[in-house]
Amino acid sequence: MAKGSQLTQLKSALAQAGLNRQPHSSKKRKHGAVSRETDKDKKAQKLHEINQRLNPFDVKVTKLKHDVGGRKIKGAAGKPQASKQAGIEQRRKTLLKEYEQRNHSGGIIDRRFGENDPAMTPEERMLERFTKERQRAAKGVAFNLEDEDELTHYGQSLSKIDDFDDAGLGLDDDGDEESDGKIDKDTVKRVHFGGFEDEEKEGEEGEPPRKKSKAEVMAEVIAKSKQHKAQAQRQLDADARHQLDEELNDIRGLLFANGNADAVSSELAKENKDEDLDYDQHVRELALDKRAKPKDRTKTEEELALEAKEALEKAERKRQRRMMGEDDESSEDESGRSGKRLRRTAAADDLDDDFVDEDKVEWDGLGAGLEADASEKEQSSDEEVEEGAEDSSKNDEDEDDADEGFEESDEAADSDADSLAPGSKLTTTKKCKGKAVGQELPFTFTCPETFDDFLEIIEDIDEKDVPTVIQRIRTLYHPSLGQDNKFKLQALTGVLIDYILHVTAPPTPSFQLLPLLLPHIRSLTKSYPIESANYFISKLKLMQKNLTRGLSKGATSLDSKTWPGTSELALLWFISHAWPASDMKHPVVSPARLLMGAYLGLGRVRSLNDIASGLFLSTLFLQYEEYSKRLVPEVTVFLLNTILHLAPHSFKDAESIPGSFPSPDFKGALCRTLQVSKTAARDLLPHPPNLVKLLAEDTIDSEQNKVDLFVTSLDLMRNTADLYKGSDGFIEMFQPAMEILQSISTAWTSEPVKAKVANTKDTINRLLKFARQSRKPLALQAHKPIPIATYIPKFESHSSGYLRKNDPDQERAAATKLRYQYKQERKGAIRELRKDARFMASIKEKEQQEKDRSYTDRMNKVFASIERERAEQKKMEKEKAKEKRRAGRK
User: Fold this and answer.
1) Signal sequence span per UniProt (predicted)?
2) Residue pair 615/712 in contact by the 8 Å Cβ criterion
3) What's the number of CA atoms in the CB half-sphere (13 Å) around residue 437?
């Protein structure tokens, strides 16, 4: 190849190939088309070869280190430019299409009811779809095809209209051509070979006739042919049926050749008649069969609350009419039916379903004239209404702070302590009275705003009916039924808490209502947590104030109140059930725990009442820490001191007691009478202590009460040890307790008490044994030893690369090959991903450049138009200036 520049080399290559010559323009010699195509192919091939020689980057050759003759190596020569262009084209077809359609959405989405719900069975899906369909049908359909007997077109039935009547394709009367399915002569004459005269004449007046296209003519021919064939087939079917009807008797005679044909015919007729009777009977059974009724739609919470309220108001109106002695016929306008059951004497054919014996009619307190069945139905309906209202009230929102009836005064400081329960200073007649004989519980009540209002409402109502009254108040004043109902229910929360403190206050506390009122307070607390928490906290603050006042008078003074009473304990019990006690930090539970710990840690034991109150607090602590298992040392200390106060032991003074827990009342002046008498308690059996009686009254220190409290303290000690058995300090906490239990003398006790003591000892001893076994001394963190660095060279037994690739171990060789393939595939995938990223970056860059260019063009056009306008404006201003100057000169 000639040397020089690229242009020189190109000219030399074209000259050598004979491509630089100009073609002859002589008109005498003209070659054919074949020779011209051949010359083009040869010329293109030569140009391609010249391009390959001149462009050294089109082919890349890998230089071999050792050239071996006859060996073919794959990938020694490559075309990077061609492969790159092929990759770009492939990405334009795949990756670019996906990028352009990235925001497109297609496909069919199945939106049928319950189709994508795996929890629904096929029967439930079908039932729900049927329900939705019936609900849509109930609203009315725009086009109901079943309203008329027949849907006609121009007075004709659809079943009588032939599809080919309007096409003008009538059938020929010739039976031969109709039977053989051929096209009639008229069609051949008009359409085939020289027809179309009629079609050309068709057309509107004043317009030239339009000639039909070939496609239209062939469509008509095909339609007529199909029509003739269908008509011929129908005629053949009719003839076959007619022939079979005529030959039916002959066939029947062949089938029953041995018998009488008439007898056979009568028998067949009889069988057909029986079958018809069975069919009619089956149809009547299906008609009388009870059909499945579709379910109504699920009602909302507001609708359920409204129905419950209306049911209560309706029942109250009926009750008022019964009390006034009015007839039930007046209620037909509201209920739509007669509300009074007619009384009559029994007849012979009665089923005893509505018979009421007048001699046996007794009034059961539910209203005059009401039977037991009616009252039960009414009660069940009330329960359903109340349950629905309770469920609906669980989703209410915030709650107000209701502190009515609970105020502190300076005068109360002179007394013993502020009373926690409002209304406790009232007379006992202010508490719930039993309702008068013959009075029925009303169905509607006003929502109390204060505690005194609530006492007026329940003044003549039995205590067992108070939860029903509360439920009906919540139902009537559901938050969704009025704007102010939410604030009324927030006030009701505080009223209920005050009522609980009132009924549990001495001298006659009652705890039967606590489990019944707990669901209502829990539901209201969940609905209005902030206001309820503020009310509970205000009560806890008053309890803390009373404790501080009692401690200031002297913890050992008999007049100071340093232990909670029945009302305070009821409030703490409600806190444990109304709020989550396992939270790490809680605005209500955390202050309650601190207050309970202060009672146990700062209170001094003076009587059995104090011990009973402390044991109740210990039980509450076990309930509080059931899940969180937070350590409360005050409980263990109080239980050990209680055991030392009640049971005879061998300790002489406080210094001899094992452990380091405080025991300020050990053998004190007030605690000497608390120890059990060895002679009087020998035959006493343990019973659950009556904490209500012990807390409400100044009871005498009887031996039975002491034994009961001693056994209760043993049970609590055992439960406490089981609660804290996983604690790290279990040995240090309960080793002194084990020594104290071992020093207790059991000679004075009965056999059940001895069994309790032995059981407690065995439990704590076993837990201590397990704790000692699980305790291990501290050690450094275990870790894998670090080997010492070595500098010995690594020798390979097989230095040949061929032997390394051909490992005699087949599994190891397969694993090595798989790792190599994985490595190569991973590199290839990374390389392709990088190429894809570069391709997409170039596409996005081009899009951005196109956007910038279009934006620049638009802005240039705008600026150009503005500049033209500005130039014209300046030109006009100059012209005006010239005119002014000319005018001035003149």
Assistant:
1) none
2) yes
3) 1
Per-residue DSSP letters for 203-257? Answer: S-TTSPPPPPPHHHHHHHHHHHHHHHHHHHHHHHHHHHHHHHHHTHHHHHHHHTS
The type of residue at 618 is S
The predicted-structure confidence for 764-821, as pLDDT tens digits, reads as follows: 999 999 999 998 888 877 778 888 888 877 666 555 566 666 777 888 889 989 999 9
* CA dist., res. 285 & res. 837, Å (int): 74
Q: Report pLDDT for 280.
A: 77
Its sign, for the CA torsion 348, 351, 354, 357, is positive
Angstrom distance (rounded) from CA 756 to CA 711: 7
494-530 pLDDT, tens digit each: 999 999 999 998 888 888 888 999 999 999 999 999 9
Give the whole-angstrom CA distance, residue 560 versus residue 598.
Answer: 15
Residue 390's nearest CA partner among 465, 467, 475 is: 475
In 590-665, which ranges are E strands? none
CB 305 within 8 A of CB 392: yes
pTM of the model: 0.50
Question: Is residue 320 helix, strand or coil?
Answer: helix
Secondary structure (H, E, C), 766-809: HHHHHHHHHCCCCCCCCCCCCCCCCCCCCCCCCCCHHHHHCCCC
Kindly state the average pLDDT of the residues 572-587: 90
Which of 381-390, 656-665, 693-702, 809-818 has the largest mean confidence? 809-818
**What confidence score (pLDDT) does residue 533 get?**
93
CA distance 681 to 706: 9
Residue with tokens 């009660």: 379
Per-residue pLDDT, 607: 85
DSSP state of 80: H
Distance separating alpha carbons of residues 126 and 117, to the nearest angstrom: 13
Distances (CA, A) of 174 to 14, 182, 191, 834: 83, 11, 19, 81
| Helix pair 485-503, 566-578: axis angle to 10 deg | 140
Query: How long a stretch of residues is the chain?
Result: 890
CA dihedral 642, 643, 649, 654 (to 10 degrees): -40
- E strands of 730-773, at which residues? none
Q: What share of the chain is helix, strand, coil (3-state, %, to 5)?
A: 60, 0, 40
The span from the CA of 835 to the CA of 90, in Å, is 12
Say how many C-beta atoms besides its own lie within 10 A of residue 630's C-beta: 14
